[in-house]
What we know:
8-stranded parallel β-sheet, single chain, TIM Barrel, Rossmann fold, 6-stranded mixed β-sheet, 17 helices
Amino acid sequence: xxxxxxxxxxxxxxxxxxxxxxxxxxxxxxxxxxxxxxxxxxxxxxxxxxxxxxxxxxxxxxxxxxxxxxxxxxxxxxxxxxxxxxxxxxxxxxxxxxxxxxxxxxxxxxxxxxxxxxxxxxxxxxxxxxxxxxxxxxxxxxxxxxxxxxxxxxxxxxxxxxxxxxxxxxxxxxxxxxxxxxxxxxxxxxxxxxxxxxxxxxxxxxxxxxxxxxxxxxxxxxxxxxxxxxxxxxxxxxxxxxxxxxxxxxxxxxxxxxxxxxxxxxxxxxxxxxxxxxxxxxxxxxxxxxxxxxxxxxxxxxxxxxxxxxxxxxxxxxxxxxxxxxxxxxxxxxxxxxxxxxxxxxxxxxxxxxxxxxxxxxxxxxxxxxxxxxxxxxxxxxxxxxxxxxxxxxxxxxxxxxxxxxxxxxxxxxxxxxxxxxxxxxxxxxxxxxxxxxxxxxxxxxxxxxxxxxxxxxxxxxxxxxxxxxxxxxxxxxxxxxxxxxx
Length: 487
């Protein structure tokens, strides 16, 4: 069940917001603390056919009420007299506001700055305060922090528990709440009207996560991270699952520590993780087994739990090398376009190692450079390849240039790369920001280079991951229109 939080500032427009929310949800939270002037609560909440929850939060609990505590308590008592379905009362003031009529009491406890501890003790105290529902609110920056809150929701108790995870990763808790029995989860009516920073809107829950299809039997695929690329990945994968009528959805998450991760994932029945490049090495450390490409490159972007445990896979090198070879062209079906071509990899991270591994497999002549010469030398020694000191970059020509360092900047400084390096004969691929273009792509295009399109690499990699997860091809309809929006 979805509860949309409505945060009106104007009494005149408040009923419009409530009406708009009622068309998209099962329940409405009216946050009185955002109103500039004191409302007539009875008039404000009358005439709607969806259950109404009234709240009025003080600043210490993340709200916006600017009056005195006596004024706030008076407003809450007035609200109860208006007969909403639910009233939210903080645990420390619940005894000052007695039960009245048929209004149910949501007794809340909020920790703005840190994850909650001793949840069972807090629940017992809230239950003794005559709660019909107990609500916990706290930051959930990663899976470890969200775990106590999730356990509180999933556990069978005398009264139900709802929760709100603060910050963008709070969506992890919300989606898990749908699967594990939370009476409702919260959403903002629209962007800019969040009850707290980072709260997902009802549009996001619909378009990105297809929330209405999530239930107890839904299979979850973990997608690590909340950046633009990870958000796009979630949207496309979920679109693919929906088109193929699979009861599978993506769960965006930050994993926290590795020591308890396997047990956490087992409890959540998550057997698949799509990993962002920054965590490719940690993903390999977590896995019990690794395919040859992942093991040799020290890079993993997909984790699958199989009969023998967690297995690590490196998908990016195949997609990148395929796109490069397509761009270079093939004279014969058995030709390898990279064979004996000079390839320069710029960067010394896990992505660079994945690219070097692939180029070796395709018989390319590979060199590595990076602003940090020590790191570049380490990678060169690992793979037995030539290292190019960054200061000597402009004296080194290459047929193919692959950029892998997301922190590399364009410019004239010692640690920056001058776009004048690019020559017309070069093929250039920047895998740092796929599927988006980068300033390096733009400059290389301007200089007539052959650009290996980042979007082509991204979709090929995502398609391979989707097939490994689902056993089926990713439908073109799942990404065609979505990628067009990104242009």
